[in-house]
Amino acid sequence: MDLASTEKVLEMVQNREIEVITLPRSSEYSPFALPILDRITTHDVLRPIVPTKAIIDIVKERLNSGEVRLFCLFKADYDGVKQLRSLPERITCPKCGCTLLASTYINDCTLIHIAKKRILKKKLMSDEEKRWQVAWKSATLTQTYGKKALVVLGARGVGPTTAVRILHSHYRNESEFYMNIIQAERNYLRTRMFWDH
């Protein structure tokens, strides 16, 4: 910011050399007001979220160019990292052909061991059972919705429960689908401080 010029303008306002005129509030905020509003409150409280095509394109590119770790929950015989863009619409295990593939974060090396324990009918610890349930929901979404489920599950803060809501909704076009994902990511970012404690 040009502080010297700003100081000069403020002095001119104070000396009544520049008149400040207030206008009735319209439905749009001025470009000068938006950064101030965004600093004092979350983005969608004082102004509605209306993602532009550019934002939708950026989010779509980010989600589709990401990597996903897939595990076969049917035989626990596959554990691989794939780029989402390279996957077909219908996802199957490259080893056994099953469609029960769970997605997880790239560095997750423990889920495959939990799956193997489950298949061998060994007792799971309570935290392992929770992880298994999340993985199972993820796999059923992948089985039902294919690559589209992996796109949604790749969004920040979107787990199987939120993904179900997004995937079950009806969309008139692809933009509405990605707008719903953007909204879910924003909700997560706005509320994550409450989940982390």
How would you describe what is shown here?
With 197 residues, the protein is mainly α. It has one domain. The chain contains nine helices and three strands. A three-stranded antiparallel beta sheet has the order 2-1-3. Strand 1 and strand 2 form a beta hairpin. Helix 6 packs across helix 7 (147-153) and helix 6 runs parallel beside helix 8 (160-168). The protein is elongated, with a radius of gyration of 24 Å. It starts with a helix and ends with a helix. The relative contact order is 0.11. The model has no long low-confidence stretch (mean pLDDT 86).
Short descriptors:
9 helices; mainly alpha; elongated; 197 residues; 3-stranded antiparallel β-sheet
Largest sheet, spatial ordering of strands: 2-1-3
User: Which structural class fits the helix and strand makeup?
Assistant: mainly alpha
Number of strands: 3
Largest sheet: number of strands, sense, barrel closure: 3 strands, antiparallel
* Unreliable segments of 5+ consecutive residues: none
Specify the helix fraction band. 40-55%
Q: Write down the secondary-structure element order.
A: HHHHEEEHHHHH
Number of domains: 1
What is the overall number of helices? 9
Quick one: overall form?
Answer: elongated
Strand content: 5-15%
Using only C-alpha atoms, the radius of gyration works out to 24 Å
CA distance, first residue to last residue: 38 Å
Average pLDDT rating:
86
